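Newbie here. two chains, one complex. Structure please?
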Amino acid sequence: MTAASLHLELPKLTADAEALRQEVRAFVAGERATGRLPPPHRVGLGFDKEFTRRIARKGWIGLTWPKRYGGQERSALERYVMNEELLAAAVPVGAHWVADRQSGPVLLKFGTEAQREFYLPRIAAGDLTFSIGMSEPESGSDLASLKAKAEKVEGGWRLNGRKIWTTNAHHAQYIIVLARTSTVEGARHAGFSQLIVDMTSPGISISPIVSMANEHDFNEVLFEDVFVPDDALVGKEGNGWNQVSAELAYERSGPERWLSSFRLISELVEALGPDARPSSLEELGRLISHLLSLRQLSMSVASMLQQGQSPNMEASIVKDLGTKFEQEAVRVVRNIVSAEHLTAGGRAERLKALLIHAQQYAPAFTIRGGTNEILRGIIAKGIGLR
Amino acid sequence: MSENRSFFRDTVERILADTLDKADIDAAEERRLLPAALHDALTENGITLMLVPEDQGGIGATLGDTAEMLRLIGDAAAPGPILETIVGQRLLADAGLEVSPGLLSLVFVEDGPQLPRDATQWQQAAAYDVPWAQAVEQIIIVARDGEGGRLIVSQAADWTVGPGADAAGEPRDTLTATSLPVTIALLPDYDAALQMAATLRGAQILGAIQWALRRSVEHAGERKQFGREIGKFQAVQQMLAELAGHVLASSAITEAAAEGQTSGLVAAARSRLGDAADAAITISHQVHGAIGFSLEYALNARTRRLMAWRDDYGSVLYWRRALGTRFNTLDRETFWFGVSDAGLAA
């Protein structure tokens, strides 16, 4: 690939996808009307097990999976549309987000038939929360340096190690851990495997990590001689790196990479009204132009995924630009709020609370799921450098 | 890609390869010399009439196809009033005026002269920043007024030309006339005409940005310092990756604008291209180092055009205000509907 091949085609959204959009909007409006889901005061994915079950009853978890595993066999573009609607409304999808986006698809692609039959219908029913066990205290961007180790024992594996920044480990029933299962001389990325670990296994301890936004999403998870049975190995022993790389492509191109700050912009628009000064309109217009561009880009990438292409560089660009946009949005909203005195005198309290929280949360946007510097390394390679 | 578009693209690529080289660009900038072979070929192949409907003697191409041609023309840094002629001919055709094969110049003015519809003379006429006034046959001034706008059509030869230039060195002249013969036609929708020109200039900007990225990546792979290609350094890789992001995002929205032609998409494209152009100028020159600053190096033929073009047919700030005004009357729930409705899919 080179710089010359940086070109996208218009996304192809079907009538079915647009029908689903209206269905999701009606569902969200219904939820709002009950008073159970007020517009949020915080950015980020909320966690609500009951809401996840209501989403599951609509058939919206595992939407693209085969029906025999509890899915609906809808297209990836329909899933894209559903997700952007749910994220823009900022309803709490945190309890199933990782399982729907990553863990389920990994099992579908690499798992055994028994694993698919056991886990996928339960994920689709909204019963299971999954965590991802990748980062370690000494292995962040340099994931291949990780030290978690699973040794072969009778009937399974003995897992030792420490995973960190593990979102929702304290809620999860399962975690898919990336650990070293063998060593291949001179091949740094060989010898890793993915294991599904039951969080109730003896030897697991979870310590909370409270974020600077004063929230408990992250954890550190310690594995001490945890027994993992043979049938919990995902895919081939030693193929973990390839499997994880495939997983990261799903993680990088979705609308969650540019919609984190969206509610903040909505609340700004609500508070701003028609009498805004020209400089505020210019700042807002610029922000919206980036938002519309990112959305066109993200839809195109979803469309390419749907057609069976592997737009890895484009997905990395979505995440690099999207997360920078999320941070930029916080700065722009702050400036407009200040210029227009929008929160003075006790006005626009939700906007005020969101703005404080978004500022605290914003540093994470360009770190989680691969730092922007790592992503730009991938992009540089994609355009023919390195 | 449609069959038509492939055909147009092959034609324009061939014309550009056959008729334009760096010496022609230099001559246009230094001596106000129009690259005649290029414009003759574009005219002979009907490209200058591509937006005019077939029954009025044109090709009747879509705006999407035309934008793709302008992207190639921007990529090549081709000088001359190409966009002006293509849009001008279409406006003449829409107004029921005679389409002639010659070149046109075009300017949009928000506060134009208040001439009566049946006026045939414009006293103390003046027009500013008129591209290539001495190289064209007719000059079209598109003036906004209370009812939409009007086209003020004049013969270039009737004006007195005060030479000026844009950042690329291409002519943008000040025109005056004590009593100018004019033909005036009503333009029902000034904004639609402005959007058409803005979209095509956007495509031209995109082409120049794409060229700048491509050349910068090549340069980073050739130029050695500290014993290796500068593209091996992470600092350089990070800059070029950032520029690649600007290129991809602005091409996504520019193509959507050209296909969809909604005012929201056009405004978004020109606002987004403003940031992409700024980044392209900064990053491509930084990667090139001193050599890019030399007038004879081809990079600045693109970057100086970006400087000239980014605020054409509505400045970056104009389009941002337009977009902000579209959205700021929405509320916290309808804002998202506005965003998603503005999108375009095939």
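Moderator note: The mean pLDDT of chain B is 96. Residues 190-222 of chain B form the longest helix (33 residues). Thread marked as resolved.
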